[in-house]
């Protein structure tokens, strides 16, 4: 495992590529936008998605699938809703034995499938792993310390990849629970929007803590349906990421919710951004699955109603608070 490919050069792909370079890997990042390829190669910065963070000149960018696929393992970092199309495009150039590591956080809205299920359909022969956890791209790119979950069904391969990309400031903890490693990262984005709304409405720190904790209960209930292990949901890729994302406006999801709580519309907010807020997509499918399967997810439902049905934030909050009292667990 000497050569790393990174598929997708948004903020997270770029940060992961810097981690690869720092780990001593010969790293190439594939970008969809020509201007990103040239800005990384010439100015050693991703001016479109990770501005003002200097990148190691050793990091090479390409727009060529064949160059990306001439590597020992590939991190997949496209937005979740574009993962299927992205991997389909990659497939003709991909060696069957190349391990693919899902680093995106979301559930495919059109099918309700986890990204590992999407890969099982599109590239069934490639080994698939998941890398997820509490990690803001800018901090990782600057080399600040973090810890993540690296999940894979083959413990030897998982260990091999952890050893290849791991370093003191980028610590992958291994797991066999590929499902659990994806559920927390996908749903915490929806809950971060909810927390942002609470912050934007100035409902206080107590409300925020209550929402994060009851949000975790929603992750647990949803995870059970997919067969996630509870321990994984309490780990870095679950609770850890929920805490991080709900705590800071560095999160695109949390800050989106905050702006909604402050009275802005989705149209206004999206007009000022070129980055992805996965929760605004994931909420559709989580809401729909929860409704279909009878899973109690009142916070997720509230986010859906506000974002997708245009319900008033004050009215929706009142309805949430007026729900009957029940046992905690
Ligand atoms: N940014 C972070 O701190 C962070 C951390 C962990 C995980 N993630 C996850 O990584 C994934 C990628 O997020 P990001 O922060 O790198 O993205 P970003 O918001 O920085 O950049 C947007 C990305 O979307 C791509 N894109 C836009 N339109 C597209 C299209 N039509 N088809 C394919 N790709 C398109 C762009 O090329 C770019 O790579 C997301 O699932 C996110 O949840 C992000
Ligand atoms: O900026 P966000 O909300 O996409 O969150 C980034 C990461 O997922 C945090 O772990």
TrEMBL record:
One GO term (biological process): phospholipid biosynthetic process
Glycerol-3-phosphate dehydrogenase NAD-dependent C-terminal domain sequence ranges: 177-315
Catalytic reactions of this protein: sn-glycerol 3-phosphate + NADP(+) = dihydroxyacetone phosphate + NADPH + H(+); sn-glycerol 3-phosphate + NAD(+) = dihydroxyacetone phosphate + NADH + H(+)
Subcellular location per the Swiss-Prot or TrEMBL entry: Cytoplasm
Residues at which NAD(+) binds: 8-13, 137, 252
Entry GO MF terms: glycerol-3-phosphate dehydrogenase [NAD(P)+] activity; NAD binding
NCBIfam families: PRK00094.1-2, PRK00094.1-4
Protein name: Glycerol-3-phosphate dehydrogenase [NAD(P)+]
Chain's gene name: gpsA
